[in-house]
């Protein structure tokens, strides 16, 4: 994977912050994505480039079951979310829609927004600031879902 | 080796003797709950997957609650999509204005002890109040269940919470679950089941258990579990069978952790802005001026909650600058509160009673707040911006505490 820029967020980042309830009524993810992280960083959708990374702390994606949360991140081109830990429903939703979610205990505290990072999914490592961090490697089954672009694409392929 | 409540439910569902935490299993789904916010996405995914039939149209419950009544013109698109899908697939259970999904799933007689249930809302953990295994999922997985009737789950480890004794006056089950979330942290139970027992739990009504199961997700829990008893049987209008009667944690079951509390040690607490686990005793927050009070939601909009608030408000007036918004969780509760005089007491005190639904709790309608305003609310989340703007402060509390705050115009304790 190529280098991408890091956008770093705090612990217990909830799905209301990723995409607020009032925007869930918009007809599709493309219309929603311009409101991503609106309460925390309204410029995020303009600043983020395809291939960039979101880095979180503990319990990333807690709160609501809204699948729109990982979906807007993916639609904006976020390559992966790297966090110390994830809330259960967010994690499951992210894998299902094909957004890599990577647990890495040491990296989040060592980086800042704007740092460049490179992620090697199949090896389970991330490189940033001249250091290499080992992340939890995703099971092969999940890597397969991700490489095919999500659960539906993967199931249809198995068909 | 003994088993926890959730292990017993999953094993029974699979038709096996036992299951172990960490095992990945495919369960047969007893009920699904689809809500109005997610329905267009569920329907899209269902069709994208190539399904044409719902595995069992009698097992799916479609509930309009977040958007009822409509607050924006486009809300009605969700009803139209839902209605068309119900017609296409022959869904028999559709609630268009009966109340909040998590209230209706047990109140309307669907979920029973031992059932396995999934819903497209994180507070689906609520049905643990009657001893069901229930949890929230996204719309893609919901579409997959609608087509297949199954879903894979990891058998969760269980944290056992034992509460012995009798709660002090002025303390409600909401204070227990808030304190527990504070003790565990907002991710302290992630991937785990929270199993409740002890004499304080046995004494509790189903409504009180519901408030606790509802908020299990706020500690990250996958699900909550209460042992079905005589109260459960009466509430569900069933006779418990042997399997349901046996849904208790065995003495030699594997628990990840056991937390033991004395009921007498609990005090009224609040979750302070803007984290559910930022818990402080109400006593320490006394005197903080407020603008609004909200009593309702799927956490605390039941008759016992409205009664508790009415008891505090009887013969008193809400502070002139405070708006007290009361929101019964269902039409049935609304009707009961009317019949027993509770609504009259609340209205005479100055309450604004709104229609059953999710409106204010999810920040859509019925009392949205602006920058700099402070609200004491009985719902389950105080996330930044949830009930208004990112500069609105939300304090979560019990209905008794909320009522006392409404009268005082500032944070106050109900029983001093």
Description of the molecule:
The complex is a heterodimer of chains A (159) and B (416). Chain A has 159 residues and is of the alpha/beta class. Chain A has a single domain (4-158), classed as Aconitase, domain 4. Chain A is globular and about 40 Å long. Chain A has helices at 15-18, 29-32, 44-47, 68-75, 88-97, 107-110, 140-147, 151-158, and strands at residues 4-8, 53-55, 80-83, 101-103, 116-120, 125-128, 131-134. The model of chain A has no long low-confidence stretch (mean pLDDT 93). Chain B has 416 residues and is of the alpha/beta class. Chain B folds into two domains: 5-263, 2-Layer Sandwich (Aconitase, domain 3), CATH 3.30.499.10; 271-408, Aconitase, domain 3. Chain B contains 16 helices and 18 strands. The longest helix of chain B is centred in the N-terminal third of the chain and has 15 residues, at 75-89. The termini of chain B are far apart. The relative contact order of chain B is 0.14. The model of chain B has no long low-confidence stretch (mean pLDDT 97). At the A-B interface, helix 5 and helix 8 of A face helix 2, helix 3 and helix 5 of B.
What's the arrangement of secondary structure elements?
The complex is a heterodimer of chains A (159) and B (416).
Chain A: E1 4-8, H1 15-18, H2 29-32, H3 44-47, E2 53-55, H4 68-75, E3 80-83, H5 88-97, E4 101-103, H6 107-110, E5 116-120, E6 125-128, E7 131-134, H7 140-147, H8 151-158
Parallel strand pairs in A: 1-2, 2-3, 3-4
Antiparallel strand pairs in A: 1-5, 5-6, 6-7
Helix pairs in contact in A: 4-5
Chain B: H1 5-14, E1 24-28, E2 31-35, H2 39-48, E3 60-63, H3 75-89, E4 93-95, H4 101-107, E5 116-119, E6 133-136, H5 139-148, E7 150-154, E8 158-164, H6 173-184, E9 193-197, H7 199-203, H8 206-214, E10 223-226, H9 230-236, H10 242-245, E11 257-262, E12 269-271, E13 279-281, H11 282-285, E14 292-296, H12 297-300, H13 303-313, E15 323-327, H14 331-339, H15 342-349, E16 351-353, E17 374-377, E18 393-396, H16 399-408
Parallel strand pairs in B: 2-3, 2-5, 3-4, 5-6, 8-9, 8-11, 9-10, 14-15, 14-17, 15-16, 17-18
Antiparallel strand pairs in B: 1-7, 12-13
Helix pairs in contact in B: 2-5, 6-8, 13-15, 13-16
